[in-house]
Amino acid sequence: MASHIVGYPRMGPKRELKFALESFWDGKSSAEDLKKVAADLRSSIWKQMAGAGIKYIPSNTFSYYDQVLDTTAMLGAVPPRYGWNGGEIGFETYFSMARGNASVPAMEMTKWFDTNYHFIVPELGPDVKFSYASHKAVDEYKEAKALGVDTVPILIGPVSYLLLSKPAKGVEKTFPLLSLLGKILPIYKEVISELKGAGASWIQFDEPTLVMDLDSHKLKAFTDAYTELESSLSGLNVLVETYFADVPAEAYKALTSLKGVTGYGFDFVRGSNTLDLIKGKFPKGKYLFAGVVDGRNIWANDLAASLGTLKALEGIVGKEKLVVSTSTSLLHTAVDLVNETKLDEEIKSWLAFAAQKVLEVNALAKALSGHKDEVAFFSANAAALASRKSSPRVTNEDVQKAAAALKGSDHRRATNVSTRLDAQQKKLNLPILPTTTIGSFPQTIELRRVRREYKAKKISEDEYVKAIKEEINKVVKLQEELDIDVLVHGEPERNDMVEYFGEQLSGFAFTVNGWVQSYGSRCVKPPIIYGDVSRPNPMTVFWSSTAQSMTARPMKGMLTGPVTILNWSFVRNDQPRFETCYQIALAIKDEVEDLEKAGINVIQIDEAALREGLPLRKSEQAFYLDWAVHSFRITNCGVHDTTQIHTHMCYSNFNDIIHSIIDMDADVITIENSRSDEKLLSVFREGVKYGAGIGPGVYDIHSPRIPSTEEIADRINKMLAVLETNILWVNPDCGLKTRKYAEVKPALKNMVAAAKLLRTQLASAK
């Protein structure tokens, strides 16, 4: 019985790749040093899977930054601004595309489907000259082979690649990206022929866009592409892998009638409807790669239930043709539970990270083929599941009752937004184009040291509080010097915008090394929500009121919203997500009301990840948006008109959910906008009426570049062309935590100067 892993995390069990990348970018280590760390990580992963008995082991799932960018490099689709002159693409061009450089900005980054991973969006058009410019897929296959491991090389399929791209600057927005298929397939053929020559017997094409709502024209592109590749693929076994949702009936039909394809991979964790399609009809003699082990969460698999699913599938496709697999790449889960020495033993028994999921896949494959040596593994699993079901730590009656009581109301504030903005302006007395920042200020090495020492009990609470107060004071003084209108305290006491709150809420558990890649070298450590959520004590009131006492200017209270806490955590899978979200909303509501009582008049409730949780299929989106937006309103429905509620949202296409954003009914919304090049503003150009305050980011904080006053003023002018002067705010597009003060000070100085310049111009125009 065969087993397969769709993909594996690249960062390493202790974020080895992150540190190697950052050291290389800072010029502290060489390209050779970086390549050595990468090669060691790859070899240990291949050997680990081989040792666990996995038959179909993936290669080319490693990346120095992002797998879509790797495909762009493979196809030689480098935007002209990077000055690449052909030849094999090296680190310089590759990392310039990913991160920008001193003279040109990075390519756009956006969410990978509905995950918290970001990919670098290809910029394509009719004039792109494609060429085979990165031999990474073949090199990694050969590298594994030299170690004695025969792998399945993975490529992002040609159709998904084009559907995930965008027209480059200067190319018509309506440019049909799929018209480039004929230009990229010759390069895919070259790669396939080299892989064949190197001895590959299987090749995996990831085509996750097949789970989206695709029209017949797009589905035909799949048929055309794989028909065109058919002769190149002869002699190879070909797996087309899908994940993140079930495959719609039309797409299933198109996929399973592809000639030259040997096997199909499906996500049975988030795609239970695909089971019915397979029961209806599955092509004779083809392999089914059954994704029954969840690649996106950290809960131990219900092995008995998975075995039941697999046995049903075996009856349809036959024993020889069924392969046990993960539902998605394990990129989206933490690396190895072995490194969690501080996690409570009971909770630990309920979990499985990537390394454990590899073992689960193998155990299921063995059990299915009748091996008896898996009995102990299965009974330990059953015991852990039973303990989780009955554990008193999971259930809190009071929380359950409070959440149930929410059903009757839609929790709106008493008056409309324009009335509230008037009341707030009387109290806050802000200029037009008020300036603010999103929340965090740079986290210096010194600051991280203080937090680390406090956590390790090396310094006393008094010493810690004193150090943090000094840092807040420094940030407040800096903002006053820069003449920013609405201040923040800089969040020096916070490690992470979700973890910080989770640590103070009940129902959450934390890992030490449960890191997951977000983009490039940036990793996040999602909390684990295992039980009912409540807030035992105020969480931020002390720090926010301390900061407000240092200045006469308004100080923003800073909270993370319930939907973002939910979407950026590993969420319990034993109740619907919305129930957990309502519980978190009630906890944040208590905090908002306590901040208001403490004299904080501006409170920001970040919903950076609201868009991220949007289901991939249109039919499921309205329900999600309804409960997500409702959860946000629950948090602040009880405050006075004079309290200004801000929210902040990051990377994403908002255009399709703008009406839900308006329905959140925040007083001011700040939005990450600078990398997605005004896409956001087009919504307002198209006549959407927006009456609340809005601050589309005026510069990109994800890049070390310092924008000039003129550049920022130009951006603000573009915004003023579509937004009313009296609702526009001026701010960076995200928090400043990851930047250095040497970048932040000049950038903010230029931002304030740009706002003042425009105030003067607007006043004289009047």
UniProtKB/TrEMBL annotation:
<dbReference type="InterPro" id="IPR002629">
    <property type="entry name" value="Met_Synth_C/arc"/>
</dbReference>
<keyword id="KW-0486">Methionine biosynthesis</keyword>
<dbReference type="InterPro" id="IPR013215">
    <property type="entry name" value="Cbl-indep_Met_Synth_N"/>
</dbReference>
<feature type="domain" description="Cobalamin-independent methionine synthase MetE C-terminal/archaeal">
    <location>
        <begin position="433"/>
        <end position="756"/>
    </location>
</feature>
<keyword id="KW-0808">Transferase</keyword>
<dbReference type="Pfam" id="PF01717">
    <property type="entry name" value="Meth_synt_2"/>
</dbReference>
<dbReference type="Pfam" id="PF08267">
    <property type="entry name" value="Meth_synt_1"/>
</dbReference>
<comment type="similarity">
    <text>Belongs to the vitamin-B12 independent methionine synthase family.</text>
</comment>
<dbReference type="InterPro" id="IPR006276">
    <property type="entry name" value="Cobalamin-indep_Met_synthase"/>
</dbReference>
<comment type="function">
    <text>Catalyzes the transfer of a methyl group from 5-methyltetrahydrofolate to homocysteine resulting in methionine formation.</text>
</comment>
<feature type="domain" description="Cobalamin-independent methionine synthase MetE N-terminal">
    <location>
        <begin position="3"/>
        <end position="315"/>
    </location>
</feature>
<keyword id="KW-0028">Amino-acid biosynthesis</keyword>
<protein>
    <recommendedName>
        <fullName>5-methyltetrahydropteroyltriglutamate--homocysteine S-methyltransferase</fullName>
        <ecNumber>2.1.1.14</ecNumber>
    </recommendedName>
</protein>
<keyword id="KW-0489">Methyltransferase</keyword>
<comment type="pathway">
    <text>Amino-acid biosynthesis; L-methionine biosynthesis via de novo pathway; L-methionine from L-homocysteine (MetE route): step 1/1.</text>
</comment>
<dbReference type="GO" id="GO:0008270">
    <property type="term" value="F:zinc ion binding"/>
</dbReference>
<keyword id="KW-0862">Zinc</keyword>
<dbReference type="GO" id="GO:0003871">
    <property type="term" value="F:5-methyltetrahydropteroyltriglutamate-homocysteine S-methyltransferase activity"/>
</dbReference>
<dbReference type="GO" id="GO:0032259">
    <property type="term" value="P:methylation"/>
</dbReference>
<dbReference type="GO" id="GO:0008705">
    <property type="term" value="F:methionine synthase activity"/>
</dbReference>
<keyword id="KW-0479">Metal-binding</keyword>
